[in-house]
Specification:
CATH superfamily: Histone deacetylase domain
Structural class: alpha/beta
Shape: globular
Strand content: 5-15%
Number of domains: 1
Distance between the termini: 8 Å
Radius of gyration: 17 Å
CATH topology: Arginase, Chain A
CATH class: Alpha Beta
CATH architecture: 3-Layer(aba) Sandwich
Strand order of the largest sheet: 2-1-5-10-9-6-7-8
Order of helices and strands: EHHEHHEEHEHEHEEHEHEH
Number of strands: 10
């Protein structure tokens, strides 16, 4: 099978200002790590993303939200919320980030066992159906899931989110949906304050959200065990036709925005856990979308470990 990296240098132009954690250097350090690992670099393909169309965004976000973001940026706004700075190009770039997730789905669906990694910014998993927040403008992983269902006829999608922060936006978008199972392991209590164990969905979606809140300083061994057991629990009840990973690497030991203890090797093993489900139920097809990860000395190595496992 192949692994494709979906990337565009335009992501570097999303200007969040000096000192902001979500900055262009995040992607530059991943590119540098790939350049230094020539064996890995030679084994992964590269794809240019297409921009998400408005109909792609509308499957997950309200029209008035999209219009408000566009208008705010066109009028020279500098922030969408206190944590989410923007620049004049941010709307276009956010559409290109969501579009990378769409492009990654197309790539994965083009072959049995296809896998793709959308190396994007801004991240997406905090964006709800009605508002951007927490560095995120549009919910890239959610857009990918709905696109897979609408365009490729996929029925069941599993979204696995291992970012240190709970993916509240993804949870909210699929809260009443039994066709998308959302799993999140995350530090708790922590931003954004959601993700308790009793948050399991509503209506037809009841039981299709599984949150694993972890206290700060949880050992990597305990973290991985909880993750693995959660996947086994899900597989007994839900067989996905596509797996999407909200791949946040701020759950790495030493990240400035978290207090979890994972190492590079743990991300590789967690990726393999996900692949076991994908190989049994979704012909091996996996789409990963970059979320958090803010230690510039660690992010590149963690992403490379993830890519090696995908291979």
């Amino acid at each position: 099978m192949s692994v494709q990296i979906v990337y565009d240098s335009k992501y570097l132009r999303h200007d969040t200002g000096p000192g902001h954690f979500e900055n262009p250097q995040r992607l530059e350090c991943i590119l540098q790590a790939l350049a230094e690992d020539q064996t890995l670099s030679s084994r992964v393909g590269r794809l240019a993303p297409k921009a998400a169309r408005e109909e792609d965004l509308l499957r997950c976000h309200q029209a008035k939200m999209i219009a408000a973001i566009r208008a705010h940026i066109e009028q020279g706004g500098t922030h969408l919320d206190a944590d989410t700075p923007i620049c004049t190009e941010s709307f276009e770039i956010a559409c290109l980030a969501a579009g990378a997730a769409v492009t990654a789905v197309d790539s994965a669906m083009a072959e049995e066992g296809g896998r793709a990694f959308a190396m994007v910014r801004p991240p997406g998993h905090h964006a709800t159906d009605r508002r951007p927040m927490g560095f995120c403008i549009f919910n890239n992983a959610a857009v990918a899931a709905r696109y897979a269902q609408s365009v490729h006829g996929i029925e069941n999608v599993l979204i696995v989110d291992w970012d240190v922060h709970h993916g509240n936006g993804t949870q909210e978008i699929f809260w009443q949906d039994h066709s998308v199972f959302f799993l999140s392991t995350h530090q708790s209590p922590h931003y954004p304050g959601t993700g308790d164990r009793d948050e399991t969905g509503e209506g037809k979606g009841t039981g299709f959200t599984l949150n694993i809140p972890l206290p700060a300083q949880t050992s990597a061994h305990a973290h991985r065990h909880a993750f693995s057991e959660a996947l086994k629990n899900i597989e007994r009840r839900f067989q996905p036709d596509l797996v999407i990973i909200s791949a946040g690497f701020d759950s790495h030991r030493g990240d400035p925005l978290g207090n979890l203890m994972l190492e590079d090797s743990d991300f590789g093993e967690m990726t393999k856990d996900v692949l076991r489900i994908a190989e049994k139920h979704s012909k091996g097809r996996v789409v990963a979308v970059l979320e958090g990860g803010y230690n510039l000395d660690l992010l590149g190595g963690a992403v490379c470990a993830h890519l090696k496992a995908l291979l």
